[in-house]
Specification:
Layout lengths: L2 H31 L7 H8 L2 H23 L2 H7 L2 H14 L5 H19 L11 H16 L9 H28 L2 H26 L4 H23 L6 H18 L3 H11 L1
């Protein structure tokens, strides 16, 4: 893997992140406008009738091919954390469009994300296909699926539980997207279709959980909390999938900086102000 490939992979991941996080701001407005407080398919049916929510979801879907392309060029260990750049885009938009102040700790958070990505780029393993056994993959997806679907079975679910469920569902989607990218590289079209359907199912579950969370918790906190999980879980699983870390301490340090910076940006006034303005 060359430095140019790695840079292109990060750039594509940044484009995907801009789509994903830009969609969250618009989806939050529509989710809160729906009176129904249930979680799952019923909530999605109510949201599909709202054109602005559909447009926001289309924006998020547009980011998925960029993520696939990024994973074809760079390792999972770098691509998933690079999605944090979407929060930086929201921060810049809030500052530019709303003149919201960017506090010193926000700049520190941006520096943490940039520094974390730089560390991950330095210690990144070679980009290679998933080498995990079917048993290992089944165990990972079973655990993530149980957490993601648990809120659908409960009558009342707190917002924090929905954020966790959404993060696990999106983590599963990130892993299936990596498997899809590998299958594209191998030219296995039937396998590509299978992983595309699995990615759609995981992302759809995550979307339902996330919309339920947006009705109960601030949009920026939902995005930051879900992001932390959908980043940390796939990266933690990467060695089990076949990525070989020669410097695990460096990878752990880079990941910690990215996640910490994302959690801080999630509550930045410039970010929360952008969502609030869309609601007015």
């Amino acid at each position: 893997m060359s430095a140019a490939q790695l840079a292109r992979g990060i750039a594509l991941a940044a484009g995907a992140a801009a789509c994903f996080d830009g969609a969250v701001a618009l989806q939050a407005v529509e989710a809160r406008a729906v009176a129904q407080r249930a979680v799952g398919a019923g909530l999605l049916r109510a949201l599909i009738a709202r054109p602005r929510w559909v447009a926001a979801t289309a924006l998020a879907i547009a980011g998925w091919p960029l993520q696939v392309a990024a994973l074809a060029l760079a390792p999972l260990t770098v691509v998933q954390p690079a999605l944090a750049l979407g929060l930086v885009v929201l921060l810049a938009l809030g500052r530019r469009l709303l003149s919201e102040p960017v506090r010193p700790r926000d700049y520190v958070a941006v520096a943490a994300i940039a520094g974390g990505l730089a560390i991950l780029a330095v210690f990144a393993p070679e980009s290679r296909g998933v080498e995990a056994s079917a048993t290992t993959l089944a165990a990972i997806f079973r655990a993530l699926g149980l957490v993601a679907l648990a809120p659908w079975l409960a009558p009342r679910v707190p917002g924090a539980a929905l954020v966790i469920a959404a993060g696990c569902a999106y983590a599963a989607s990130g892993l299936t997207t990596k498997l899809l990218a590998d299958s594209l590289d191998e030219g296995a079209l039937l396998v590509v279709v299978a992983w595309a359907l699995a990615s759609a199912a995981a992302a759809g579950t995550g979307l339902a959980d996330e919309m339920g969370a947006l009705q109960r918790v601030g949009a920026a906190r939902v995005a930051a909390g879900a992001f932390a999980l959908q980043t940390a879980i796939p990266v933690a699983a990467a060695p089990a999938l076949g990525e070989h870390w020669d410097h695990p301490a460096g990878v752990a340090a880079g990941l910690a900086l990215v996640v910490a910076g994302s959690l801080v940006l999630g509550v930045a006034r410039a970010v929360t102000g952008l969502v609030s303005a869309a609601h007015e």
